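We emphasize that the prediction below concerns an isolated chain of 274 residues; any contacts that depend on oligomerization or on bound cofactors are therefore not represented. The input was used exactly as deposited, without trimming of termini.
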Amino acid sequence: MRRLSNAQCTVSQTLRANDPFQRFKPESHQAVRRPDVTGQSYAEQARRTREMLRSLTPEKARDIIEFRGDLNLFQASAVAKREGKMLVPNDVHDRILMETKDKGLLVQFYGNWLWTGTLVIYVAPGKKFGKNIVFSWEDNVKYSISFQIPKQFRGKTNCALVIEHPDFELIDLKDNKYELKLLEGANVRLLENFPTKSQRWYNTDSETKIPIGRPVKESKDARCLWRFEDSSYLGPVARYFDYGGDNRRQFVYAVCRSTLRFGVAFVQLASSEV
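Result of the prediction step, given as a token string:
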């Protein structure tokens, strides 16, 4: 299977020179309107914040989303935890990408690769989920993320697990090794019939907008999935758009290394204080 090249899965120097995220410094942030979900547990805040985002028009969603650039997954997770924020899920990005008609705005926010808060876990086609999964890669040095598969999903084949931020956290085990941990009350969604072929068009799961099922013809409602056909993956979904191909707004990338520095979209979680 052909993997994404550096040119496909990292922002080129030319794009960086015109990076629309440059005006957003990684450690700075803007005040944004907080969703009214006070007095609830952290998991409940996250759930209701997602519901709030999903209820908004793309224009209103953009108003409360804060875009930052040049962060890998570990940095983005640390920023979110420190500042009480949530990484915006894939389905919200999907709606913004598909319903925004102004291509200039799309390039402004999605002209560089963008991490979503939707994390996907899958193994090679035909293989079963075991007790654990370890996804490793090299980015100058070797990195890995491990995860203990919940018992109810072990033995499943040709499926994917989906976890939305902030239902998970990444524990630094040192030596560039990380462990994915579920927070109390976390929801792990099983997507059955996860596609086994990459770079093909599929219908999507209604909630996550992750491709599922058999290949279909390209259409506005379909999405093109990028996945590894011969190995496992554990990491966030990435999205991207540029003028080079309008249908790239429909590409769902579940192949990118978590150490790559992409843009990230955050939304503020309300304080748990009443």
